[in-house]
Amino acid sequence: MIKVEEREKIRRAYFVEKKSQRQIAKELGCSRDSVKKAIESAEPGQYTLKQPRSAPVLGPYKTRIDELLKQNEHLPRKQRFTGHTIYKDIQDQGYRGSESTVRGYIAQRRGEKRRPQVYIPLEFDPGADAQVDWGEAVAIIAGQRLTVQVFFMRLCYSRRLFMMAFPAQKQEAFFAGHVQAFQHFQGVPQRISYDNLKAAVQRILEGRTRQEQQKFVVFRSHYLFESRFCTPGQGHEKGRVEGGVGYGRRNFMVPPPEVASFAALNAQLLQACLEDDARSIDRQPLTIGEAWKSEQPYLRALPGKDFECCVSTAVTLNGFGQVEFETNRYSVPAQEAYRNLVLKAYPFRVDVLHLHNVIASHPRCYGKKQDILDPLHYLPLLEQRPGAFDHAKPIRRWRESWPPVYERLLARLREQWPDGQGVQEFVRILRLHEQHSAELIGQAVEQALTYGCAHLDGVKLCLRQLLAPQLVPPVLDLSAWPELVAVGNQTLNLQRYDTLLARG
What we know:
With about 500 residues, the protein is of the alpha/beta class. The protein has helices spanning about 5-15, 20-30, 30-40, 60-70, 85-90, 100-115, 170-185, 215-225, 240-250, 260-275, 290-295, 380-385, 395-400, 405-415, 420-430, 440-450, 455-465, 495-504, and strands at about 130-140, 145-155, 160-165, 190-195, 200-205, 210, 225-230, 260, 310-315, 320-325, 330, 340-345, 350-355, 355-365, 370.
């Protein structure tokens, strides 16, 4: 096939320069047939394979390949015969040709069957349907680049979108996403469509039948919506939310947001969803927000109490005042060291309970084999055992971030009481964190050092002054008691005190 530049030269030589086809072919070194085709059309012809290339070695095995391709139509997408597995199959039957020949024949057969996919335009009633999906995105949280899991829910009628980021696709995060979405929509849709998520589906049965997770059934019962699950590999069945996932990720998370915490990230995403209410969608006369306002009355009312989105498990206290969950250990206050405890893991925090009372709360850790220690939990023990202070892991971690004024106070107390009493006094001062903020205690310690009262009572006094500044006493009006007016003006006479002292 001649190039377009050569075709142009031929046509110019023939039509402009009036040269013969024979002369042009001789000058340009091409065939007269090529010259003729260039003269007939400026557009190069499209090459098409009129007949499949012959593959005599493959001939006896084509029927078997067709059978395996037919089986693929009834197999899950990720478990279908590939070009390589088909090649290995017919090799076992005696085929001695190349794998590329097999792949070429498979491509030809698939091309014959491939047709453009055409979808049916859908229309939804207000309040009737919503769609849910997960997506991944990158965010920079507290200076660390993380891959976060983003929960998406979209109302099908108004197209209103809700997004929320989590560290992991846990079931409790799945439920929490729903709860926050329902609050955002101010109601619950009648039916929600899903992929076959593990948080909801325990087992895929025939057709659209699913064996659902028991806790998901409880959650669904709490909010009284129906669930619908898509056919495996048919993501287009919930195209609106999948389109929303892509839209939200492109428009709300590019470039990757830089935030201090997940809470800040989710506040940012919620604000973006609220601003998205002003957007108009093609062929929809109303904005998303206007359509949602007309849809909201058709949503089911929220129940009086939110579903508790957590995993509960019984835990046992170890010898270091810790309980274990997902290989991580969380501390418990020394004075609350009970045998029978329950741990509740929420998406972003972990609570430890005794008899329904929360005795410890920590940020949830998604790492492995980490110690999550609250130094305040160990202060009562350190007050009794001040000798362990310098090597206590919770204190060593705390010292990396506490204010420098604490080190000055500790040095002052150790200088004043070198026998360990100074450390004990310092621990008692640290226990003030159980009732007051770190900022307030830092100010009180600074004042106590300035005033020369660097001890527990001195810090407490400074705290009281910060919490309730000393009032100026009112001036007494003695006009009604003239005999008392001169009392404060009398000259002091210490002779009476000397007499008393002498009597002994």
